[in-house]
Fold this protein.
Amino acid sequence: MGQHGALSAGVENDDVGTVATGAPGVALSGLRKSYGAFAALADVSLDVRPGEFLTLLGPSGSGKTTLLMTIAGFVRPDAGAVVIGGRDIVSLPPHERDVGIMFQNYALFPHMDVGQNIAYPLKLRKLPNAEIAERVSQALSLVRLDGLERRKVQDLSGGQKQRVALARATVFRPRVLLMDEPLSALDKKLREQMQLELRRLHRKLGMTTICVTHDQREALTLSDRVAVMRSGRLVQLGTPAELYEQPTDAFVADFIGDSMLVPVRSEAGRVWLGDRELHVRHTPAPGQHVLVIRPERLTLAEAGADSGGDVNIFSGKVTECVYEGDSVLLHGDCGGLALRVRLLLGNGAAARIPRQGDAVAFALCRQDTILVPQA
């Protein structure tokens, strides 16, 4: 049994760096898996860095869960390799791969109490009782459930069950931690709290972690890097900022964040929206492209304002005003172009927000223009 990702009861400060040392990377090479004519994985290659938190993100049917289960050993690929710490484990059964798995529904044993659930993988490995007790205590402390060893599983809240499942998945000190939609069963507020908790735990454990989610905001919050999948293929790999600011195509731009996709064309070093020239940060190669507009990057301008050379002005009327608590989302019709602008509501800002039917001008700075190829 490896010593990677070791739990440590001696760490008290959440800001302390990672505890684990020697966490291995995961190298996926040429993975393919088909079910009849359906290609669940189509030649997927991906390197996960040692100690990294990487999220597999994509819509239903994109292949992200199949890829995770292939790493775990529950799916046997038709071709390709899964290398952990320099060893190809593709032919090994799940229990010999030394990976921890946290399932979507937690998969806790209802007839066992909290301590017994966490101790289960240690008993399978026939560790001495004294070591089992010590590790269970450390794991409970790590997930902030001290003193709940004898609590029945059915008496736990959703967030507590999630913590128990995480403690069980890491208590035997696996080389890699896999998580399948770990927060999907929680309500919105608790899910957001647990996102921060997972980041804290990852910093402490230093364990190479691969997580699956379809929630793009969750992926951006949790991850060092995100791998976006579509139709069994990896379409973009990057940091959250890279995916948001530099999407590779219209699919990624639409899937990551709130966005409006506007068809444009590039000709002779100039970019056109219909018969209007746009001021853009970078001019793409000639052809058809998509302008990606994020609502928070638009601002309000005075009606009739001059676009100048550093800003694009879109004039029209407000069609809808949606109050969102700390912000308001204005929908506008700008000569047939539907735009949305999200405005934060500061002191007295509500009185200055245009109403439905008012003339409005939306401004988009040159530096905020994102152009991508059509998907």
Notes: Residues 188-205 form the longest helix (18 residues). Confidence is low (pLDDT under 50) at residues 1-21. Helices lie at 64-72, 114-124, 129-142, 158-170, 188-205, 216-222, 240-245, 250-255.
